[in-house]
Amino acid sequence: MYFDNSATTLHKPAALKEKYVELLDSEKYGNPSRSGHALSQNSMMGIFRTKMDLAKIFHIADPNDIALTENASFGLNMIIKSLVKENDHVITTTTEHNSVLRPLYQSGADLDFLDFDEDYKVEFDKLPELIKENTKFIVTNHASNLLGNVNDLDKIHQLAQKYKLIMIIDMAQTAGCVDVDLSRYSNSIFVFTGHKSLYGPSGTGGIIKVGDFDFSNVFAGGSGINSFDKCHPKDFPAIFEVGTSNFLSQIAMDASLKFLLDTGIDNINEKIKNLTKRFYNGIKDIKAVKFYSKKPEGDFTGIVSFNIYDMDSAELSLILDENYNIQTRPGAHCAPLIHKHFATEDQGIVRFSFSYFNSEEEIDAATDAVKEIAENYMNK
Q1: Does pLDDT of 227 surpass 80?
Q2: Which of 62, 108, 233, 269 is most buried (most C-beta within 10 Å)?
Q3: 327 phi and psi, to 5 degrees?
């Protein structure tokens, strides 16, 4: 029973597997954007079809406002290193993944952090107190990979507009399971990954821009255009699409996107929410359990994070795996400032994260397992 979907979704739509096999068996797809022959054109059109369906999912008018990357970590590094300068001031949060934190640290920019309250809500109301003359960016996630919260993009964007900030949003945990019209957020950049709730292959992701930005080159190399120029093209999306991409996976991902469009993201979200509530309600009365994620009500993602008394999170996750065939994520989750907030740096936290492809039967089995482990631990 696989409950580590916030790391990567294990179960994918059948159509993705079929498409991947078809592409691997085919001899119809050459290197995209490098040649004028039919096989190259096939790949270019396949990638563009993926971008068109991504545009539908994110409600973007122009598919060319999407740059495809290897994953969200690549995308966030590209955007932060392309835009953030050493003399800039950046406001971010203590709920960020290291894919945001580490590039920001490397930038040398002046950083201020918004913390979260007892209801796991980031305190964006305090943003005005942090504004300086050189504040240029608000960088945050749409949802934490540990807390289960969903940040209010409308509120963040209103603040960004008021203080003339560029809004950079990490959508790794919400792309594909929370329906958002990104076209509503001007002067903003969104980064997503393909291998989580878009149910695509690993090695896929992208950047979506809403507005025009003065990007600087982070990588340089083959682009298929302007080959006699000494500098890599600065046009979007070419500035971030350097060299030969993981194009077969990018083409195959369109099968997953069509599954999402056909099923409906709201329907997917509703099922994940119901599974999350079922699991939370099943373990909430266990005295040994301490929660570190949002109560599943209102806006939330498919995450329940907790510990059993002082048991090391790695030990609990190992027992679940070896004795119950239940896969979860222990440890720090690449979110060090959350653990600093909770003082769980040594113990870590166990995270259950759910997918559209999980079942109620699996949830009930996991509930029984946690109850049994907690009872055994208390009776030691």
Answers
A1: no
A2: 269
A3: -100, 125
Residue type, 123: E
Write down all domains in the chain, each with its CATH number in brackets: 14-263 (3.40.640.10), 265-369 (3.90.1150.10)
Burial 318-333 (b: 16+ CB within 10 A, else e): ebbeeebebbbbbbbb
pLDDT tens, position by position, 101-123: 999 999 999 999 999 999 999 99
Contact 13, 259 (CB under 8 A): yes
Q: Quick one: which of 337, 370, 365, 375 has its CA closest to 351?
A: 370
Distance CA 4, CA 320 (A): 12
Count Cβ neighbours within 10 Å for each residue of 109-133 and write b for 16 or more, e otherwise: bebbebebeeebbbebeebeebbee
Dihedral pair phi/psi, residue 68, rounded to 5°:
-90, 135
Supply the pTM of this predicted model. Answer: 0.95
pLDDT tens for 24-54 read 888 888 888 767 798 888 889 999 999 999 9
